[in-house]
Design goal:
InterPro entries: 4-hydroxybenzoyl-CoA_TE, HotDog_dom_sf, Tol-Pal_acyl-CoA_thioesterase, YbgC/YbaW. Belongs to the 4-hydroxybenzoyl-CoA thioesterase family. The chain has 150 residues and is of the alpha+beta class. Helix content is 23%, strand content 37%. A six-stranded antiparallel β-sheet has the order 1-2-4-5-6-3. The chain is globular.
Length: 150
Amino acid sequence: MDLNRPYQGAFVGRTHHFALRVYFEDTDTAGIVYYANYLRFAERARSDMLRAMGVDQRAALESGEGVYAVADVAIKYRRPAKLDDDLLILTDILEIRAASVLIHQRVMRGDEILADATVTAAFLAPDGRPKRQPRLWVDMFKRLEGEGKT
């Protein structure tokens, strides 16, 4: 274990696992996770999933190829996470489209689902318009598609 490297999640089968702990900064005055922070947790997990797949978002952005942006999100909050909880974000690919990917994410505390989200990540050209995803990335997504369908 290299303590000088940031934590990285990993795939278990087709599902990406990303663990994190709830810190004081994540909570509101009642000591529960502020609702918008679940979206931050999910974003970190999606970014980590792309990195684990071999997608270099930074290089794509810097080369002018394009970048992913959330076009739509639907989230159901089921139970509150609290200070010092250990959480696991599970991420699955539901559907790949020409210029977007549909992603299912669950924020878990043990066996409990705390939040359940469906995210549409659109691939955008530098001018902000939708653009076909790189073929290599689509192929990578296709290998992961289907596990998280509910």
